[in-house]
Amino acid sequence: MKEKYFTVGMAGHIDHGKTTLTKALTNIDTDRLMEEKARGISIELGYAPIKTEKNIHVSIVDVPGHERFIRQMIAGVAGIDLVMMVIAADEGVMPQTKEHLEILSFLGIKQAIIVITKIDQVDDEMLDIVTLDITETLESSPFHEAQMFFVDSVSGKGLSELKQAIFEKLEQMDFRDRHGSFRMPIDQVFTVQGQGTIVRGTVYEGSVHKASSLVVLPLEKKVRARNIQVHHQDVEVAHAGQRTAINLGGANREDIERGDVLVSSDHFLVTDTIDVSIRFVDDLQFPVKQRAPVKMHVGTSEVMGKLVFFDRNVVQENVGEVLCQVRLEKEIVVRRGDRFILRRPTPVETIGGGWVIDPKGDTYRFGEKTVEMLQKKKEGSPKDLVTDALKDHFLLSVDELVQATSLDIDEVKQILKEDAIIPLPKGKYTLKLLVDRLGETILDQIVSYHEAYPMRLGMNKAEMIQSLDGSYPKIMMEYTIETFIEEERLKKVNQFIAKADFQPHLPKKWEKRMEEVIEDLHNDGLTVQKWEEYVNNSTISSQQGDELEVFLLQTNQAYRLTEDLIIHKTALEDAIKRLKENTEDSFSLNDAKEVWNISRKYLIPILELLDELGITKRHDSERYWG
Questions:
Q1: How far apart, in whole angstroms, are the C-alpha atoms of residue 419 and residue 409?
Q2: Dihedral pair phi/psi, residue 98, rounded to 5°
Q3: Is 217 exposed, middle or buried (0-12, 13-18, 19+ CB in 10 A)?
Q4: How far apart (Å, rounded) are the C-alpha atoms in residues 527 and 603?
């Protein structure tokens, strides 16, 4: 069964038992800072895995509940799939409970479990009152049908039922798509002695492999994933939905900050002007005026900006959906459909939230025409909807596109005839733009491979496909490689892929020393030494010697006789010429021995090589020229 990865958030008012419940479920204390231990509250995000033998892997994120730490809370819940709303039985619904519910709603989180903690501290009557209060609070929220569990984290009462419910809930849910480009908003940056810069976050989409080339946005800093950990365990690859720590090569701690985004491609926009759809909270303390300063929380970023209306100058209450724009003081990374929260910097309060219509907004005139334009952009033309679906999933069939866009099947089929869309095997479709981007990624990878291994014919095709597995579907990779070969941008030599104009060559740094080794091999003629002896007698390393041997064999400058013996091409050609000149149409083993004057140690392997190359054909004790 396919592995599934989920992040479950633990939200609720301060001191309602989130951290204690997390520890009870995972046996891990997520309050790791001294200040947290001293004050008894969670300031930074805490993560812990729930152990399971199923194919479901779950990270619990314990987010801070105190009002002052609401920004960390937003950063934590932005990447979750399911929320556990924690409410203490001895206090019931509190101000931060309501604010957290609003934030979760604005972030589009629909799956929730309500957990009433500290039940051993109250009597049945109090528990009934608190339960009724919670039910009434949830009535107008997206979580009114959420299951409710009663637990005590200290005694363990109700924990097994809660844990079972979490996994049953997750088993029914879709998990994040591993395909597509890797994106991980960064919420923690730190250094470890001897290791360098470490970043943490929840992988929003795609997969990341160890040694992958990545980019930190918005500063466009190129880095490499030196090592990857999931809950302190080294892994080769991390997938969407996993809480992940990545050791970055090529970046200093000062280069990166919380809110930056780690990506694997140029599919992501860096922007400071964003067209949005917003809904405001029901109880605004003060009106929100035109160009009001706001703090936008999206992913793990927190950026100041201005709210620009196009059909009004003030919002005094929840008026339903408002299409407008946020102009930020610095650039961030967002995609269409990303959810966000808006907070007023002073007096501090959450004022609303929504989703990104267009990450690359423009300057528009005030008036209804602009709102109509934003409405069309929000709804998207049929072509836009198909294009966006293919951008998100890379590869879809007609039926899958109909499901993704809610368009009529004939309309979808008509759009698929356009030049910008490419049909692939098995009834799948993709965008020419994505194929071109994938092709450039493959070219870049091939060029890097040529630089690292200049003596090899190229990169093994299977190895290259494996390296991109999780980022692109295999069908799409196969098609792109074949297309680039047809366009003579790539070439295939046996099972190896190379740039069309590439030729294997000796690295300049070692060229002279390697030529000396080749010359020694040539001079020894048919009575060659073991290859390792040539290497040991030279100043090249064992690894370089291995590469040189492969180079000589792949470029047919030498032939293998035995596991540890190779022979220079010229020596073999001279031997064949002499043997032909001194034999008739056929010859025996003794004939060859007499001409070449070599021992059976070399004689037998050389004759078998001639058979293998088709130069001779053996029949009983005689060999005939081919």
A1: 19
A2: -65, -40
A3: buried
A4: 9
The strands making up 428-431's β-sheet, listed across from edge to edge, are: 396-397, 428-431, 421-424
Residue-wise pLDDT tens digits, 143-183: 899 999 999 988 889 998 998 888 888 888 776 655 557 88
Q: Which residue's structure tokens are 């010429």?
A: 577
CA–CA separation, 261 and 246 (whole Å): 12
Residue with the two structure tokens 């927190």: 302
Report pLDDT for 187: 84
Instruction: Name the phi and psi angles at 374, rounded to 5.
Output: -65, -35
CB 626 within 8 A of CB 613: no
Both tokens of 580, joined, read 């032909």
Alpha-carbon radius of gyration of the chain: 33
Q: Give the C-alpha separation, 358 to 352, whole Å.
A: 18
Q: How many helices (H) and strands (E) does the chain have?
A: 19, 35
Can you list the domains of the chain with their CATH numbers?
4-171 (3.40.50.300), 183-263 (2.40.30.10), 269-379 (2.40.30.10), 380-505 (1.10.10.10), 511-625 (1.10.10.10)
Q: Round to the nearest angstrom and report the end-to-end CA distance of the chain.
A: 55
Residue 126 · residue 90 · CB < 8 Å: yes
What token pair was written down for 309? 């209306």
The answer to whether the bond into 218 is cis (omega within 30° of 0) is: yes
Cβ neighbors of 562 (< 8 A, separation 6 or more) are 605
- Of 379, 378, 400, the closest CA to residue 389 belongs to 400
Output the six-digit token pair for 568.
């220079």
Whether the model pTM is above 0.85: no
